[in-house]
Design a protein that fits this description.
Structural class: alpha+beta
Number of helices: 3
Helix content: 40-55%
Largest sheet: 4 strands, antiparallel
Number of strands: 4
Number of domains: 1
Distance between the termini: 25 Å
Length: 109
């Protein structure tokens, strides 16, 4: 069973549109580099500074290989540079969890 990487971002609330562009840019690079992207989540109601992302990866070894591929990927490199230039991400924290129970793969309507 794969592990899931959850990323919590603290973003500049006045640059939410830039964060959303950054999130959309990962749709191509993340799967190509070896992770199963679940999605990016932007603030909607409540906190205006918290955003999240989640993706599945086989294990921590596969994660290290994935990160190397992502850093070498043209879209990945451009997106990292975009975030660095615009400075809309104030902080990001990664947590790796494994699914214990639930309906893995259920579609949301």
């Amino acid at each position: 069973m794969p592990i899931t990487c959850f990323i919590q971002y603290e973003i500049d609330p006045y640059q939410k549109d830039a964060f959303e562009e950054y999130a959309r840019n990962w749709n191509e690079a993340i799967p190509r580099c070896g992770a199963d992207l679940i999605g990016y989540y932007s603030p909607h109601e409540g906190s205006s500074t918290l955003a999240y992302a989640a993706y599945n990866i086989e294990n921590l070894g596969a994660y290290e290989e994935y990160r190397s591929r992502l850093m070498a990927d043209p879209v990945g490199r451009a997106n990292y540079e975009f975030a660095r230039e615009k400075r809309f991400i104030r902080r990001e924290d990664r947590t790796f969890l494994r699914l214990v129970t639930g309906t893995n793969g259920a579609s949301i309507k």
